[in-house]
Design goal:
3 copies of one chain form a homotrimer.
Chain A: H1 29-41, E1 59-64, H2 69-81, E2 85-89, H3 102-111, E3 116-121, H4 126-133, E4 138-144, H5 150-164, E5 171-175, H6 182-193, E6 198-202, E7 217-220, H7 223-227, E8 232-235, H8 240-245, H9 251-258, H10 262-265, E9 273-275, H11 288-291, H12 298-316
Parallel strand pairs in A: 1-2, 1-3, 3-4, 5-6, 5-8, 6-7, 8-9
Helix pairs in contact in A: 1-5, 1-12, 2-12, 5-6, 5-12
């Protein structure tokens, strides 16, 4: 399914209350900022995560149809930190293999009185389809195909706000394989919603964003131009198989053209922050000097990722 | 081992107290009804599961020698809802592979002070053997070979009682591969114990029940006759490999002869309920109109499955 | 890395407080005995484990790069019994496979605010390297290569102390593949620290200890001589592949020469205890009469293993 044709309407009920988190397209600014506020409150003064009792009578299931240990771990940790019961459903060996339809599997898990499903799937729009078919369970999209990865974009926004305070006057560069990145797609939507007026999409032709450009968003293939004077440098993970398809001869060639070095980073604002969704390929997207340097906020993104996922669960549970 | 020669005597101590749940054969009616009563009390007025603190100082281990994600999940959810610590022991990669004897593995887990073992195994009578060899740990049979699956039968009885109130005057049809079904074997025992006087076992010759028939139980191979006027239609999951051995040419042929359609269901009582242990093969055991229809109680069975497993744990822990 | 060149200095901070548990070499006697004392207090009068709330605001991650279901389970059970959140990180499918460096994976897990890492790895010294590179996370070595397995040795000391009271006058035989056994290496260090003056290392030439002998430690290849008059018989697990390399023709030959039978056990003190880290190969290291006999403390070792791991976590958390 073409991401542009996927609607997130099901995530708001008739009164505008958030009942699922499917994607950031169409999510009102107020709702998005509410999640960021709740997440901020889950950090203490030292940037450490608090523990919450908000979900102590609830159950959260991780339904990862596509393997991703790290993202699954973050949701499991977040659920446990809100005191929810958690269950990891092994879908590789489960009933869906026994010919049961996906919706039967979902209805069965609901009948086990699981309150939230965290879903990752390689098909665009699959969490949306489940949300449309099942009542009474909150769906959290943990990444669907190349469509969306809303909690990643929310943690990125949380991190930017911690450093920059507000969004209106920022220039943001997103660099790398934007075309196939659900992270980038969700980040573009979040930045637009929050009022960023200069979003630069920097990628070689084949990996460039294919969606419709709205005001304030530009496509560039030159990195120097892309990061010139920006406040935020968002880098994306390069998948080797995509590199081949993009006719990039090797990793060194990618690094030479699109990798962020300390030298190139000088083109951005002196206070610019450098972000990456992890895991970093050192020497490909970033050199180690940048990854470990004073402008890198990569590990802070990880901590914020727990806070955001806790916040999303708390909000969907109606506890904030 | 022939299921008929397996004794459940070890599940009651000298004073008649339940100390393991191995099977329903020989389980006194009073004890069986007590479990149903405890399970009923774990549901609130809306049919939702309560949370219990009954096992908050206990540990439950899932020992699944045969993979079954769904059943394992239900036991894990049930244990967590009673506040027990839970542990899933990966027996595929564990010490039993390192030549350790099964009883050594069990003694070792007991020495880790795990209070209950939930055991699934492809061998008839294996949980019984463990119960006879190990003191001080409660064994719950989560399915052994074709012998027994007592928690499934208990949840079926709970569901029937919710709809029908009592058992004495009911007619019940069990349809499908009864021969190889531990679910059916346990259901037959439970229905008999609870006083059902008309239990019809409906199956083609090869898949028909091979056990001794006691009073009130009949074998039929004609579905129409089998469900005529019954109050409860219990369908069983068909395993493809068994279909082949039974000389059923294909799934359509099975469905034509033994599948439940809305049309055929009209032969049963108008208030008859339709049950299935899941996962359903739509268009084989049931058509979708029946599976999703007003007489289907399949998802209620799933919820009751959590309540029953919680109840069994609470009873074995001596907390009810 | 040669075990002899691995330092455990990182496990003590500048003030001598234990901040990691990397190995027993260099661990002061007072600190070692403190862990044993805390573990003793976690057992009630009947030898049953208590539950503790000590870590109820903490998270423990199991990072097992080398599979070991049993040891992983013991750490998971221990962490849950101290009320910690636990997470098993599946490192086979995780980011380290995606080219992320090990230290990035560790930093990321730390940024998820996990407080303790329980690490098993086939490389000698790997937990030490992580401890030296990461601040603010407590590292517990759950076995590194052939170097050390400190919690196993601590539970062995706890078990010996329960039976013998003190260490100074004991004779202890360690029998089997000492060369490749991290368990033996840690036991030798613990016994030395606690003042045992007669430690006999009994093994065929190829499997004999290759480290430097300090006072009170002797190498023998004759079992009869090795266990003559000892108070403690510690047996080790034989790995089949090592047996082949050691030119032992078959398991029977090993058993004949180094296996402990009731007959041979009569050479030891009448009150001698027999230990094994599990899982036992019956008929290879021990015959069943010994494994299940009155002098065997093997299952008590398992229970103590939970107590010791709880104690180590409680001490590292600064709660005792």
């Amino acid at each position: 399914m073409n991401p542009e044709s996927i609607s997130n309407d099901a995530q708001l009920d008739a009164s505008g209350k958030l009942i699922h988190l499917l994607g950031l397209k169409g999510l009102p600014k107020k709702e998005l900022e509410h999640i960021l506020d709740v997440a901020d409150d889950l950090l203490d003064g030292q940037g450490n995560l608090k523990k919450s009792k908000a979900l102590d009578d609830m159950s959260v299931a991780n339904l990862f149809f596509e393997p991703s240990t790290r993202t699954r771990n973050t949701f499991e940790i977040a659920a446990k930190r809100t005191s929810a019961n958690t269950i990891n459903v092994d879908l590789a060996n489960s009933a869906t293999k026994k010919n049961e339809t996906l919706m039967d599997t979902m209805q069965t898990l609901k009948a086990m009185q699981i309150d939230m499903f965290v879903i990752r799937h390689k098909k665009n729009g699959l969490p949306h389809r489940i949300a449309s078919n099942i009542d009474g369970v909150a769906i959290i999209n943990a990444g669907d195909g190349i469509n969306a990865h809303p909690t990643q974009a929310l943690l990125d926004m949380m991190t930017i706000r911690q450093h920059k305070g507000s969004f209106e006057d920022l220039s943001v560069a997103i660099i790398g394989d934007i075309r196939h990145s659900r992270v980038a797609h969700s980040d573009i939507q979040a930045l637009s919603t929050l009022g960023v007026k200069d979003i630069r999409l920097v990628a070689p032709q084949y990996l460039q964003y294919k969606g419709t450009l709205t005001e304030g968003i530009s496509r560039l293939d030159n990195l120097q131009e892309g990061i010139d004077g920006v406040d935020v440098v968002m880098t994306l993970r390069l998948q080797k198989e995509r590199m081949v398809a993009a006719d990039i001869p090797n990793e060194q060639a990618y690094f030479k053209t699109y990798g962020i070095t300390e030298e190139k980073l000088k083109l951005a604002q002196p206070e610019a922050i450098v972000m990456h969704p992890g895991p970093v390929n050192r020497g490909i997207e970033l050199d180690s000097g940048v990854a470990d340097g004073p402008q890198s906020v990569i590990l802070q993104q990880v901590t914020n990722g727990i806070a955001i996922r806790m916040a999303v669960m708390v909000v969907l549970a109606g506890k904030a």
